[in-house]
Write a structure and sequence with these properties.
Layout: H1 15-20, E1 25-31, H2 35-46, E2 52-55, E3 67-70, E4 73-76, E5 82-83, H3 89-96, E6 111-115, H4 123-146, H5 157-169, H6 175-196, E7 219-220, H7 230-234, E8 242-243, E9 248-252, H8 263-268, H9 275-285, H10 289-294, H11 311-326, E10 331-335, E11 340-348, H12 352-362, E12 363-364, H13 369-377, E13 379-381, E14 383-389, E15 401-405, H14 422-425, H15 428-433, E16 440-445, E17 448-454, H16 455-461, H17 466-481, E18 491-494, E19 507-509, H18 516-523, E20 537-539, H19 552-567, H20 585-589
Parallel strand pairs: 1-2, 1-11, 2-8, 6-15, 9-12, 11-20
Antiparallel strand pairs: 3-4, 5-7, 9-10, 10-11, 13-19, 14-17, 14-18, 15-16, 16-17
Helix pairs in contact: 2-19, 4-5, 4-6, 13-18
Biased composition (Basic and acidic residues): 311-321
Region (Disordered): 1-23, 262-321
Subcellular location: Cytoplasm
Length: 594
C-alpha cells in the first residue's frame, strides 16, 4: 500500500479501495483507531449503526497499545497494565474473552536500593522512607478530595512533597543517614514522574492530584499482551470500515447550511459561517507554515523546505478545495493522501500531544479559543521504556528490582531538573546526565530487564541509538551492582513516544494552573449551528475523561460516551448511559451536557 494513496492496492483497508466503491459519505467518521476510536466504533456497531468509517494514520490499530515479542516474552511498548478491577471495562472485556483465566497471585517482589558506590540500603530504611512517601502523596490528594487550602506559595505536588521531606529529615540527626534517606525520596519522586507522565512533579497541580480516580484491585497484566484486547474489539468491525495509513490533514466542521438560499438572506442567517475566506487564507499559506505544522500527523512530509508544489499537486489541491466548498455535509474530512470524506458527525480521538501541535491548523474554522487554551494548559508528558535482553541471567534470582540512588548533582535538584545556564541551551547538561533519570531496573524475566525514564531526559534518549543506550545501561548496572562482569545485552529496545508523529508524547496530566475544567473543555462537542440537535464534532480519548485521564479505560469510556450521544434520540438535555452489571464505571462517571 502506498503511503500517498496514489497506487491502487488489493487490500480492502486503503483509501483507494474505498474510492472504488465511491463510498465517501458516512454518518460518522472516527479519526484515530486507538482505544477511544475502537470503543466508539464498537458501540455504534452493537447498536445497529454501521455507516461509520475509521481513519487511522498508522498502519495498525491500537494507538498507544502495542505489544511485541522479545525472546520468549510479550513486552508492552505502550500501555502496560489494566489499572484496577472494580468497575474497569477493560478488565471485564479481558475476562469475557478469556484473556485472564484466573487472577494471578503476584510473585514475591523483592526490591533492593543501591547507591552509586554499589552499597545496598538496609531494607528497613527503604521501607520506612517508602511508607513516609506514600503518606506524603496521600496528603497531596486530600487537597482535592477535602478542599483544603495548601500552605502559602505551595502550588505543585513536588513543592509540597519536598516540604514534607524537609520537615521529615529535620528529625534525623546523623548527616549520613539524612543524606541516604534524601536519595531514596529523590528516587521515588523520579518514579512518580513516570507514573504521572511529566518531567518533574513540580509541574503537577497540587489541588488537582486527587481528581484522578484509582480503581481498586491492583494492576493486571494480560499474559498474551495488552494488544490481545484489541482483537475482540476489531472482530465486531467490518474490515472496510477501517482505513489504515490515512492521516487526516484537516477537519472542516462549520458548513454553510443555508448557502443555497443565496444573497443577503444566506449571509444574514444565524447558522451561516463564511468559511471560504478562511480556506483562501489557508490556501495562500500552503507551502509555508502549513507544510511544517502538518508533519506531526503524517509519516511523510507533504512538502520539503517550502518547495513549490508540482502542477499535479496544485491541480489536486484545487480539486480538493472545490469539492470541500461544494459539499453540503456537516463535516468534511481532508486526508493527507488527497482523499476527502463527508460525514454528519466526526469523533476526533487524536491524542492530546497531536492536538497541542495541530489544533491551530487541523480544524477549519479554528477551534474556539477556550478549547485551544485548555489544550495548551494540560500536560502531555513523555515516558519511555528501555528493555534489555540477555543471553543468561546475571541478577540474583531473589531480586526483582534494583532502585538507583543517584547522587544529587550540583546542577540537579534531585528530580532531574535541568540548569538554567548556557549548558542547558546547547544540550550539554542533558548529554552528560540524561541517564540519571532512570530510577530503577526491574525484572520482566530472568533474562529481560526494564528501565523507565521520563521528561526531557526521555526526549533526549529518543535521539540516541539503541547501542549507545545499551552501553550506558551496562555501565550503570556494573556500577550499582559493583560487578564489572555484568554482560552487555544482546538486544536493546527503547520506545520513542515523543518522536512518534501520531502520539507526540505518552499520556495526560494536570499541570499547575490547569484543572478538570480543561479536560471538560476539550471534551465539549462542537455544533455547526445553534439549530443542530447533534454535534458535528465530538472529542474522545484519555485526555477527555475528567477522572480516568492517562488510562486505557478512560479512553474506552470516552469513546463509548461519544458514540452514545450520537445514538440517543434527539433533544435530551441529559444523557444517562445504561449500566450493565459488569461495568460500574458508567454509573460512576455520569454524563451531563450543557
Amino acid at each position: 500500500m502506498s503511503e500517498d494513496g496514489t497506487a491502487t492496492t488489493s487490500t480492502d483497508q486503503t483509501a483507494e479501495t474505498m474510492s472504488s466503491k465511491e463510498k465517501r459519505k458516512h454518518k460518522v467518521i472516527i479519526v484515530g483507531a486507538g482505544m477511544a476510536g475502537l470503543s466508539s466504533a464498537n458501540h455504534l456497531a452493537k447498536n445497529g449503526c454501521t455507516d461509520f468509517l475509521i481513519l487511522e494514520g498508522r498502519n495498525r490499530v491500537g494507538g498507544r497499545i502495542v505489544s511485541i515479542d522479545m525472546g520468549s516474552q510479550k513486552i508492552e511498548l505502550g500501555a502496560n497494565w489494566i489499572h484496577g478491577v472494580l468497575g474497569n471495562p477493560m478488565f471485564e472485556l479481558a475476562m469475557q474473552h478469556g484473556l485472564i483465566s484466573i487472577i494471578n497471585i503476584p510473585k514475591p517482589h523483592k526490591v533492593v536500593a543501591a547507591t552509586e558506590d554499589g552499597k545496598q540500603v538496609p531494607f528497613q530504611i527503604l521501607q520506612e522512607i517508602y511508607e513516609a512517601y506514600v503518606c506524603f502523596l496521600r496528603r497531596c490528594e486530600e487537597y482535592f478530595l477535602c478542599q483544603y487550602l495548601p500552605p502559602p506559595d505551595i502550588h505543585s505536588v513536588g513543592e509540597h512533597i519536598n516540604l514534607e521531606v524537609e520537615l521529615y529529615l529535620d528529625g534525623v540527626d546523623c548527616a549520613k543517614e539524612k543524606h541516604l534517606r534524601k536519595l531514596i525520596f529523590d528516587c521515588l519522586l523520579k518514579r512518580e514522574t513516570c507514573i504521572t507522565g511529566c518531567h518533574s512533579m513540580d509541574e503537577i497541580d497540587l489541588l488537582e492530584l486527587g481528581s484522578y480516580t484509582e480503581l481498586q484491585g491492583g494492576n493486571i497484566v494480560l499474559p498474551s499482551g495488552y494488544s490481545s484486547i484489541l482483537k475482540p474489539l476489531c472482530d465486531n468491525l467490518p474490515n472496510e470500515n477501517i482505513v489504515l495509513s490515512c492521516p487526516v490533514r484537516r477537519i472542516h466542521w462549520k458548513r454553510k447550511a443555508t448557502r443555497r438560499a443565496g444573497g443577503a438572506a444566506a449571509a444574514g442567517a444565524t447558522d451561516t459561517i463564511l468559511e471560504e475566506d478562511e480556506e483562501e487564507e489557508e490556501e495562500e499559506n500552503d507551502g509555508n507554515e502549513s507544510d511544517d505544522s502538518d508533519r506531526t500527523v503524517t509519516e511523510v512530509p507533504v512538502g520539503a523546505g517550502g518547495a513549490e508544489p508540482t502542477q499535479e499537486e496544485r491541480r489536486a489541491g484545487e480539486e480538493a478545495a472545490r469539492r470541500i466548498k461544494s459539499s453540503t455535509a456537516n463535516v468534511v474530512v481532508e486526508c493527507e493522501n488527497g482523499a476527502i470524506y463527508e460525514a454528519d458527525h466526526v469523533i476526533c480521538t487524536l491524542p492530546l500531544g497531536v492536538l497541542k501541535e495541530q489544533a491551530e491548523t487541523l480544524f477549519v474554522p479554528a477551534l474556539p479559543r477556550y478549547k485551544v487554551e485548555s489544550i495548551d494548559s494540560l500536560l502531555f508528558g513523555t515516558v519511555d521504556k528501555i528493555f534489555l535482553e540477555y543471553d543468561r541471567p546475571f541478577l540474583n534470582a531473589t531480586i526483582s528490582e534494583i532502585m538507583l540512588l543517584w547522587e544529587q548533582q550540583q546542577e540537579d535538584d534531585g528530580e532531574g531538573h535541568q540548569p538554567t545556564d548556557g549548558r542547558e541551551r546547547d544540550g550539554q547538561w542533558l548529554k552528560d546526565n540524561w541517564y540519571k533519570k532512570i530510577y530503577s531496573f526491574s525484572k520482566v524475566s530472568d533474562t529481560l530487564l526494564l528501565g523507565w525514564i521520563s521528561g526531557r531526559e526521555a526526549e533526549y534518549m529518543e535521539t540516541l541509538s539503541h547501542e549507545i543506550v545499551a552501553e550506558r545501561c551496562t555501565d550503570i548496572l556494573r556500577q550499582f551492582l559493583k560487578d564489572p562482569f555484568v554482560p552487555k545485552p544482546k538486544r536493546c529496545v527503547c520506545t520513542s513516544w515523543r518522536k512518534q508523529p501520531f502520539s507526540r508524547g505518552s499520556y495526560t496530566a494536570i499541570a499547575v494552573g490547569a484543572s478538570q475544567d480543561d479536560i471538560d473543555n476539550i471534551a465539549q462537542p462542537l455544533y455547526s449551528s445553534p439549530h443542530q440537535s447533534k454535534p458535528s464534532v465530538m472529542f474522545a480519548g484519555e485526555h477527555t475523561h475528567a477522572n480516568f485521564y492517562s488510562t486505557v479505560h478512560g479512553a474506552y469510556l470516552s469513546g463509548r460516551t461519544a458514540a452514545q450521544i450520537l445514538l440517543t434520540p434527539d433533544s435530551p438535555q441529559e444523557i444517562v448511559m445504561e449500566s450493565d452489571s459488569s461495568d460500574l464505571s458508567s454509573w460512576i462517571q455520569g454524563i451531563a451536557l450543557d
